[in-house]
Amino acid sequence: MEREPVRFFMIELERLLDEARQSIVKLIGGDPASLGFVPNSTIGVASILHSLNLKPGDEIVVNSHEYMSAINELSRLEKTRGIKVHLATVPFPIAGPDEAYEAVMKHVSATTKLVIVSHITSPTALIMPIERIVESCGSLGVLTLIDGAHAPGQIQLDVEAIGASYYVGNFHKWVSSPRGAGFIYTHDKTIEPLALSSRAHYDRNDRDAFRCLFDYVGTNDYSAVLSVAESIAFHEDLVPGGFPAIMEQNHALVLRGREVVCQALNTEPAAPDSMIACMASFVLCEAGAGQDDAEYEDSLQDALVREYGVQVPVMQIQSPPARFLRISAHLYNSIEQYEYLARALGELIK
Ligand SMILES: Cc1ncc(COP(=O)(O)O)c(C=O)c1O
Predict the structure, then answer these.
(1) Are residues 273 and 232 in the same domain?
(2) What is the pLDDT of residue 290?
(3) pLDDT at 31
(4) Residue from 37, 45, 47, 67 whose mutation best tests the ligand 1 pocket (most atoms within 8 A of CB)
(5) At which of 185, 209, 236 does a domain end?
(6) Gap between the Cα atoms of 177 and 232, Å rounded
(7) Residue 45 C-alpha to ligand 1 middle, in angstroms?
(8) Against a cut of 0.70, is the pTM above it?
(9) pLDDT in tens, 268-280
(10) Residues 21, 140: one domain?
(11) Which of 178, 154, 157 has its CA nearest to residue 146?
(12) Residues 137 and 198 in one domain
């Protein structure tokens, strides 16, 4: 790119991105031509919302475990477009996927325009029953947007089989690619990037507009997405069995880590094992405490970083009101680290 930028951006980029598509669908499934690249899931979700031509009164259902970038984008659209947002409260602790399904579907009807659900929720680390939600919404004629920011590399994925109208995800989380590698998967070719490039007016008959528009959004660094194939190959070299084996190993480790932390917090797991992939969250107390004067988002997180050198997110949601701590497990983690965290929590809580 730097040696010959004009050739890179004008001649090579589309070919290289098509090669990236071929490698990526081996991990996430689907048809390469339905894959548009974006810098991250935040931009992916916003690109879809802004392409939908939302009108006053259009109803969108989200739930209380959704990532705040989606919620914030919807709040903006409430003000600018007059859409109406319904917030479903998904319980936590949760007994099983039925509770999540029912909580979301209670707010959905044939007048709903779109339902947004994370594949794996950010604060609570729950695998949501997206297949059932997508199917039920489909039968009502309701669009679905699945926010899979945390899914590739954490759980087995087939974006085509899920059947959502839109699936958004990242490779810079669990596939450990360079940052800036996100994607949109959709058959809806009316979806456009948030910004149109200097080439958007070209009338091409060799390539559909969806790929033309997403493949070039101005002079940008596309190397993150062009490195995803190498990130996948790196993991496959590291662990026999590749990603399926890595997911199994990380899942087993997070369950052991959860047990250790549950003992320190004197609590029970907040979700069944089947709703957990390679992250787990713990309810600490009701929302509200811990946020005043915090350097991070919570004074407990501050103390864990400063006094123990441990970086774990401590977050809150408002419905049900709760304060959480979330652990994750990847190949570089070991059970000793969760034991150390448990000791630190024990001392801090005392
Ligand atoms: C569910 C969910 N959606 C979206 C995002 C945002 O991802 P990014 O910062 O890559 O845009 C996150 C980040 O943690 C997330 O957990």
Answers:
(1) no
(2) 73
(3) 98
(4) 67
(5) 236
(6) 8
(7) 10
(8) yes
(9) 999 999 999 999 9
(10) yes
(11) 157
(12) yes
- Do 324 and 198 lie in one domain? The reply is no
Range of the domain at 48: 5-236
Query: Which of 236, 256, 278 is a domain's end point?
Result: 236
Looking at the predicted structure, is the pLDDT value of residue 282 above 80?
Answer: yes
Judgement on whether residues 176 and 51 belong to the same structural domain of the protein: yes
Report pLDDT for 133.
Answer: 98
The two tokens of residue 329 are 């497990």
User: What's the average model confidence in pLDDT over 77-95?
Assistant: 98
Nearest C-alpha neighbor of 321 from the set 31, 163, 123: 123
At 333, the amino acid letter reads: N
pLDDT value of position 170: 98
Domain with residue 305: its CATH number is 3.90.1150.170
Q: Which residues make Cβ contacts (< 8 Å) with residue 281, sequence separation at least 6?
A: 92, 123, 124, 125, 126, 270, 271, 324, 325, 326, 327
Same domain, 119 and 258: no
pLDDT digits (tens, 9 = 90+) for 171-197: 999 999 999 999 999 999 999 999 999
Which of 37, 66, 69, 166 has the most ligand 1 atoms within 8 A of CB, as the residue to mutate?
Answer: 69
Q: How many domains does the chain have?
A: 2
